[in-house]
Amino acid sequence: MLDTSLRTELTFYAKPPLKRIGLIPFAVALIIGVVLSMMWLVVAIFVFFHNHLIGLILGLTAFSYASYAFLISYGLIQDMNYSFRLELTPSEIILTKYNTKKQKKYFKMLLIDDIKIGEYYPYSDSASIILYTSYTEMEIPLWPLNHNGQDVIDYLTGRGVKIVNVQFDDKLPD
Fold this sequence. Notes:
Order of helices and strands: EHHEEEEEEHE
Shape: elongated
Strand order of the largest sheet: 1-2-3-4
Largest sheet: 4 strands, antiparallel
CATH class of the largest domain: Mainly Beta
Number of helices: 3
Distance between the termini: 46 Å
Mean pLDDT: 83
CATH superfamily of the largest domain: Pleckstrin-homology domain (PH domain)/Phosphotyrosine-binding domain (PTB)
Low-confidence stretches: none
Number of domains: 2
CATH topology of the largest domain: PH-domain like
Number of strands: 8
Strand content: 25-35%
């Protein structure tokens, strides 16, 4: 006998790194920031010969900002090495995180009935949802899915999962 029951399953794949929302403007801003901080380091060297204290403060400030920008750039490059696959079935959520550089896969699964609440962070460059159960939590990155992230939220809401939008300061249920 042929099973004709409707099985609702959705699978979402992360967009390629260069097509993710906000990547290009963010990278341009980082490059501009690093170039300007390097220019300020050169200015600090010239100022140091005239006033040691001001030159030192200016140099340390520029160096601190450049270090911070390089640290953010490193994190951005690490994020570009990951690809995501999110599978939503009527009973479970499966997140597969694949590191393309190290050729490793990481899996995490939650049963939808076990989810107590989800916190939705809607910011387009770092959108994510954190799902809480009594035994673990799962952070689902929505930012690499671009506009399909709203489909994930709609699917979970349709399955009865309480989603709290932190941007609107929704109250967390007890």
